[in-house]
Fold these 3 entries.
Entry 1:
Amino acid sequence: MREVMIDKVTLNIGVGKGGQELENAKMLLERLSGAKAVPTKAKSRNPVFRIKKGDVIGTKTTLRGKAALEFLKKALKVKDYSLPSGSFDKDGNFSFGVPEYIEFPGAKYDPQIGMLGFDVCVTLRRRGFRVGKRRRGKSKVGRKHRLKKEDGIQFARNVLSVKVE
């Protein structure tokens, strides 16, 4: 029950507006991950960038299981298996960005898409976390069972062979 595992890997591209750029970002995520990409909407308005609440401004996809682990290992190759400790949050989850998709192993430049980068967010969990999310009989996860930043760093070092600075 104390084993730390990957719950999900979320890939995100924020474009800032709809149209052809958003379609290119969606196509890129689907090509890299092999999973369907869904649009993301603005949570608040920002008049400086002419964004209204509910506008489609990006796209994301979620990977789980073996596909998530395989994709994560490829994505970490871009970062030379090195992450700063600031990439980890208080719950042990971590995220990093890939500045240009052509750095990703196996990806070739497509002039129709142009140059785009994406974010990789990794959510970690232990067995038994379902009790906090289930619909029926929901209860709190105990303090000792919750993940901490140190647990996430230890997982990244041991399982993913990441050097944390």
Note: The chain has one domain: 4-164.
Entry 2:
Amino acid sequence: MSVFGWIAAGDEPPDRWDMRLRDWNLCKGQDGSRADCKHVLVCNVRHLTQEQRIGMAEADRPAWRLIMLGVEEAADRAQLLTIGCAEALPSCTSLRELAARAKRVDDMFGLLPRWRSLGPITLDLFHRDARHGPRWLHLHPREFGVLWRLADTPGERVTRADLLKDVWRINHEPGTNSVEVHVSRLRGKLAEVGCDKLVATVPEGGYRLTGEVPFMLARPPAGTDALDRYVRQIDWHGSPACSAQATIPHNSQLD
């Protein structure tokens, strides 16, 4: 069964947009964070300014998991789609249409995973970079490629020849130490966030991801995800005390 998240002033979606009625499961996040989970996020942005909507999309760019509801102007919808939002839809969108569009987005996650979690490190395929909490490591494309390839088979040896074939896209020995140089630079950037032992050299030759950093660590603290931090600071109802995590009584079927 597919999973979606709900980002709005209240914790529960109204019936008109509650995809649980179409056999979806609602994820309410972890540790107070509703934007940190990696699945479709349905957002009621009807009361937000276009600038705030753009800010949300930029915080999650390319924003392929965001479905924004309540965007009434066609020009505003076009702008959000151009930024990379999965969908930007008006308030009149029916539950049936919403569920159909959400399934299309959800299917994209199955075709090509965007994220991989290595303990406190998150690999982002679209950015081709790694992140430790809110901090990007600014990996070179081949440094990212090495880490992504090692993550294909965590704990197993990946030889130099494997890396040359899968990351460098060559099937011969180039006669250089390019692999070793990139692994060294990768370790240096991992060391800056306390993860220098994540990549180990195998005595028989090659490299592997180690258990020095637990692969099933608890999720990062709430607020470390860029989108989560952004939605927390939005004044969803125009009152200073209100945040995206507050539980607000529903006064309207659109809220």
Note: The domain at 120-209 is CATH 1.10.10.10 (Arc Repressor Mutant, subunit A).
Entry 3:
Amino acid sequence: MTVEWLTRALEESRARGFLGPNSLEPHLAHAEGFAITWNALRPAPPEHFLDLGSGGGLPGLVLLEKWDNFGVLLDSMQKRVALLREVLSWPGAPENGRAVLGRAEEVARESAYDERFDLVTSRAFGPPSVTAECAVRFLKVGGLLIVSEPPESDSSKRWESPALKALGMASLGFFRFETGYQVLEKMAKTPKTYPRTNGTPRKTPLF
């Protein structure tokens, strides 16, 4: 993928310190892995996806360009969201992308985002318990959470917990396309108690 606006956007993100200083190619391959993982499980692209803790725009910007669907890039840091809004306004950028400022625990309860998405992606949002709890309300029943896993991690142990069932989620397993990706499916509507209030998922993890 060598789209001019996307390359420029990622270079700007790197220049502002939101991506590492190295080559963009590994970042692009990593982001493409989310799409490959989705395609391994579902025959058509998601109609709506949300990138949780989008940061410098990965994988959200890459997926927007690839799928040209409705995508939300969510982050709690104003400077990062300002950058994402800026690059999404550039000529050639996909028209269906939206950068949203806010905490996942709060935004997930807004009617525009509550159980609206087929896919939630997470590149480096937090530990498994935090990621699952903050992502689950965004997903429709039947939607997928795809999380990139740290190198050499034992994914089976990281995501083995009865607490996933309490969230209404189940693991579909671990996939590797150079990088490893853990996939969870939302099996039932989210209980009203989740996600808990701001900061609680990190301070008191479910597992």
Note: The longest helix spans residues 24-41.
